[in-house]
């Protein structure tokens, strides 16, 4: 019964820490509880706990962390996050009042992010922000040179 209680306590503690460390010892405790249920002496139960815990820490935890890291690093942005920062082609003059751009094959209403800029059809611009269904755009040459629109205030 001790091993089951220890396993449950460790599993609950893992919920609060989310380190994927305590759960490995909970697995070891449940394995030791299984050994106890089969009638193994206390020394064997302790060895089962130690071996299973060590194996899960050494084998399973790195694999889980590697998988979690690869999925978070390799995820392509979707929705508005994918549009912001992309390049757009001006189809109709863009200024602070109106405009039309093409972003990845889709038509978007657009306005200039900077009130002093306007863009003629055929010009490439960078999408800085999306507000509702309107893309706020910036001169692509400026944004690729390293100056960010946020730096201008």
Automatic annotation (TrEMBL):
GO terms for molecular function: peptidase activity. It is found in: Membrane. GO terms for cellular component: plasma membrane. SUPFAM superfamilies: NfeD domain-like. GO terms for biological process: proteolysis. InterPro entries: Membrane_assoc_protease (IPR052165), NA-bd_OB-fold (IPR012340), NfeD-like_C (IPR002810). Keywords: Hydrolase, Membrane, Protease, Transmembrane, Transmembrane helix. The keyword Membrane applies. Residues 82-138 form the NfeD-like C-terminal domain. The chain crosses the membrane at residues 41-60. It is a multi-pass membrane protein. This is Membrane protein implicated in regulation of membrane protease activity.
């Amino acid at each position: 019964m001790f091993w089951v209680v220890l396993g449950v306590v460790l599993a609950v503690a893992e919920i609060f820490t989310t380190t994927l460390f305590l759960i490995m010892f909970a697995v070891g405790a449940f394995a030791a509880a299984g050994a106890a249920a089969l009638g193994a002496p206390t020394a064997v139960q302790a060895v089962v706990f130690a071996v299973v815990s060590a194996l899960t820490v050494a084998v399973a935890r790195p694999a889980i962390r590697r998988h979690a890291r690869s999925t978070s690093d390799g995820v392509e942005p979707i929705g508005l996050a994918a549009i912001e920062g992309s390049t757009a082609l001006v189809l109709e003059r863009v200024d602070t009042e109106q405009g039309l751009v093409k972003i990845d094959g889709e038509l978007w209403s657009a306005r200039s992010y900077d009130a002093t800029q306007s863009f003629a059809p055929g010009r490439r611009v960078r999408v800085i922000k999306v507000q509702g269904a309107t893309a706020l755009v910036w001169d692509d040459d400026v944004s690729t040179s390293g100056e960010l629109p946020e730096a201008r205030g």
